[in-house]
Amino acid sequence: MSNMLKDPAILRELIMDHYKYPRNHELVDDDSYDSRHMASDSCIDDITVQSKIENGIIKDIRFDGVACTISTASTSIMSELLKGKSIDEAKKIMENYFNMMDEKPYDEELLEEAIAMMNVHRQANRIKCATIGWKAMKEMIDKE
Questions:
Q1: Which of 37, 125, 133, 137 is most buried per CB count within 10 Å?
Q2: Domain boundaries of the chain, sorted by first residue
Q3: Whole-angstrom Cα distance, residue 123 to residue 136?
Q4: Confidence bin at 143 (pLDDT 50/70/90)
């Protein structure tokens, strides 16, 4: 992992970019998508995450709703990172992401832009925000 991605200013910029211009930020009216609604009791976060999984591959991930900066950015990054991955690859990435949140060892290379959330654990109340979209996706993957 390049040291550039460890620079707090670059991490902040990455988070702000995904917050201002969230990727895959539109729900679809399509029965082939699974959907999870998640709401936080400690933040404004109230989002719906949709995924389309076919033949063990995540074809699409979308989300929408009201959410704070960290929640929006982390879900946007997750949607980009997991799209096109197999269920097994996605599970491995998610496991590493949750390890990072729990301050356990994790593989930086696998997390790519999600590394932007590496310092969130320092503010315990923000961990929920950084994982709400990931937990929704985990629920959908775990039932596959």
A1: 133
A2: 3-142
A3: 21
A4: confident
